[in-house]
Amino acid sequence: MPLTLDSSLDEALGPTPAKTLNRAFGMQSVGDLLSHYPRRYADPGELTPIRELPLGETVTIVAEVLSSSARAMRNRKGAMVDVVIGDGIGKMSLTFFAKNLGAAKWRSEELAVGRRGVFSGKVGEFNGVTQFAHPEYELFDDEDAARRRADARAAVLIPIYPATASLQTWQIAKFVVRVLDDLGDVPEPLPDAVRRREELLTAREALDQIHRPKTRNDIDPAVRTLRMHEALTLQTALLQQRDAVRALAATTRPARPGGLLERFDAALPYTLTPDQQTVGEQVAEDLVGAWPMNRLVQGEVGSGKTLVALRAMLQVAESGGQAALIAPTEVLAGQHLRSIAKMLGPELAPLVMPTLLTGQMPAADRRKAALRVASGQALIVVGTHALLGEKTTFADLGLVVVDEQHRFGVEQREVLRAKGSSPHALVLTATPIPRTVAMTVFGDLDTSVIRTMPAGRAGIQSFVAPLAEHPGWFNRVWERASEEIAQGRQVFAVCAAIDTTKKTAEAGALPAAEGANGPRWGVVQLDEALATHPTLGGLRRAVLHGKMPSDEKDAVMQSFARGEIDLLLATTVIEVGVDVPNASTMIVLDADRFGVSQLHQLRGRVGRGGVPGLCLLVTEAESGSVARERVDAVAATLDGFALAEVDLELRGEGDVLGAAQAGVRSSLKLLRVVKDSGLIVRARELAEAILESDPSLDAHPGLRAAIERRVTDEDRAALAKN
Questions:
Q1: Which terminus of the chain has a lower count of CB atoms within 10 Å, N or C?
Q2: How many CA atoms lie within 13 A of 116 on its CB side?
Q3: How far apart are alpha carbons 496 and 570 in whole angstroms?
Q4: How far apart are CA 101 and CA 98, in angstroms?
Q5: Which residues contact 181 (CB under 8 A, 6 or more apart)?
Q6: What is the pLDDT of residue 637?
Q7: Are 566 and 490 in contact (CB under 8 A)?
Q8: Sheet arrangement for strand 424-429
Q9: CB atoms within 10 A of CB 435
């Protein structure tokens, strides 16, 4: 019987290869293996002598191992393998890094003196010697095999697959060829008419040409076809999920004349911005719709998303329904509660009894808060993960508000939604998301954007302090901070680590590049250094980081908000939600250790009132490096949506989409949400048309099979929880 895409790897290759592929990549089926695409192709017809290798280019050579040794590294963890290879005329070195000496010895033994093979990598130079660092390679079994492989490679491209230390690209290629040779018919995800109109290959042709192209001209049509398969599969799955939510019955939550919402709006001391009004109307309509609201609200830091969410909470409260706002940190949850209570004022607050429920509260306070929630006395509940606990129950949960969606796992959100009967869901994010990313990640949510900012903001100026070129500017940064404090203003200084001696990085900081040192500054080291500063040393200074007890963090933040602290040394715990109108200056040390969106979020902590904002991005990153590009990009614009596009270009889709989007990430193999934006839009329109005429996909069995194969039950659960 020929293999199908759903055939198990055990059936296709045998138990040992199946276990190896599962352990390395989580593969289980033939379809899993065949969607593990080559990341590039080596051209064996251009095998180059070692003496003629061009620096900086990726090449493939045939050579023999002349020496091989393994050693532990001196100044850092891990081990190295040093290999010298030759082609009979020239010599070059190969360098491999390993986690430990055992792994290094294994590699050295595999690359034993006398072994011959094909080596492929980027040509570098170290101490005047030509070098490959971590090259791909395949060792020949014997001279006959060497000749056979050399002859074969003269005619076809060599696919180079993403590999692991235990599973080389050559082994993967052999498995792929075996499976392709035994593969039967491949179902077509695309309707024939669409495939012909778009000039795409059949599914079988696409798989053959991407894995074993005869020429480079075979590759692009295969990639275009498979990208369309990915886009259509994902968009159809997202729209199915949206339709599944719309099939649920919702409790309508209308506002009534003279009710809580109308009274709140009448008491507002300012007018809603046009975008707040528009989004507010969309949310209000959703709350009286036939199915549960499932809406994402994007808005710049300080654009008034919390106000939009509070108005929705009050509309739900008018029918006795409860609203739960879940925040990623204790600090942010406390800030939200105080902000909501302040906006409600003394007349409305007692009617809805906003209540805080977090895991770090004293036991007696937590029990009292939980009782208010369970009895329905508290109509607005703000909390962290504590809202997810089994002991936390709601009388009538009508609305779930998730703040900072990208900081909160999908499983946790679903637990909260399950505490009500199809509650409405409102997701807030201050991280602007490019349109195609929103369509790809949040394709089952309706989206709204708040772009206009409230009046009265003084604005923010941003500057880079490039210490690599101007080391003296470091002192000027602190002089500038002193000048701001002398005018009665307050200053944030943010570090990527808590304590550099203990390597305690706060969640969210980017890891050091290979071979690079960790962050120079932690809040502990900065506090010690500023203690002897001639001006700042005598000012009111405090430290804030994620390892501190919750009540201590809250006390520091409240003290800073009351103006009792001049200079707050913090980690990214203050990234979102902290609102101190008198804070004028944000200093970010080791700014290259943060992502574009993080830097933009941090900058948004200042310039929130009538006080002009100043953001100083301190970095030692060299000009022209990717790390420096991130910092320079943030300083160049305040437009979060423009920065989101830059972020995507610099970091790639995988990082931007986020690990929480399990179903999306596992489905994106070739699709690129910026480069392929037009394709995604076409796939969305096609998916809508297909589902409108064929909701169960009975007439599109190939597409239905592709969704079942690519978007597993687990992935669907992840999509359902967005």
A1: N
A2: 14
A3: 9
A4: 7
A5: none
A6: 86
A7: yes
A8: 355-357, 380-383, 322-326, 397-403, 424-429, 294-299, 446-450
A9: 17
Query: Which range scores top for mean pLDDT: 265-269, 507-511, 707-711, 714-718?
Result: 265-269
Q: 489: burial class by Cβ within 10 Å (0-12, 13-18, 19+)?
A: buried
Secondary structure element (H or E) that encloses residue 11, with its range: helix 9-13
One-letter identity of residue 305: K
The alpha-carbon radius of gyration of the chain (Å, integer) is 29
Report residue 698 as tokens.
Answer: 């009975």
375-402: buried (b, 16+ CB within 10 Å) or exposed (e) per residue? eeebbbbbbbbbbbeeebebbebbbbbb
The CA distance from 83 to 80, in Å, is: 10
* Sign of the CA dihedral running 176, 181, 185, 191: positive
Q: Which two structure tokens, joined as six digits, stand for 380? A: 């607005």
593 Cβ neighbours under 8 A, 6+ residues apart: 496, 509, 510, 512, 519
Q: Return the number of other C-beta atoms located less than 10 Å from residue 27's C-beta.
A: 20
Higher pLDDT, 396 or 412: 396
Structure confidence by residue, pLDDT tens digits, 463-505: 999 998 998 899 999 999 999 999 999 999 999 888 888 755 4
Smallest Cα–Cα separation from 648: which of 348, 440, 340?
A: 440
Is 674 exposed, middle or buried, given 0-12, 13-18 or 19+ CB atoms closer than 10 A?
middle
Helices (H), 542-591: 550-561
DSSP 289: S
Q: Is the whole-model pTM more than 0.85?
A: no
- Nearest alpha-carbon partner for 34 in 227, 225, 210, 214: 210
**Predicted confidence (pLDDT) at residue 664 exceeds the cutoff of 60:** no
Instruction: Write the CB contacts of 96 (distance below 8 Å, at least 6 apart in sequence).
Output: 80, 81, 83, 104, 107, 133, 134
Q: Cα(310)–Cα(270) distance, rounded to whole angstroms?
A: 15
Give the ranges where 254-383 is alpha helix by DSSP (H): 260-267, 274-286, 305-317, 330-352, 363-375
Query: What is the mean predicted confidence (pLDDT) over 414-443?
Result: 74
Give residue 301's identity as a one-letter amino acid code.
V
- The contacts of residue 545 (CB under 8 Å, 6+ apart) are 498, 506, 523, 570, 571, 573
Biggest distance spanned by C-alpha atoms of the chain? 91
Residue 120's pLDDT is what? Answer: 79
Q: Kindly tell me if the per-residue pLDDT of 413 is higher than 60.
A: no
Region 61-71: mean pLDDT is: 90
Give the tens place of pLDDT for each residue, 543-569.
998 888 878 888 888 898 889 999 999
Give yes or no for a contact between 43 and 188, defined as CB atoms under 8 angstroms apart: no
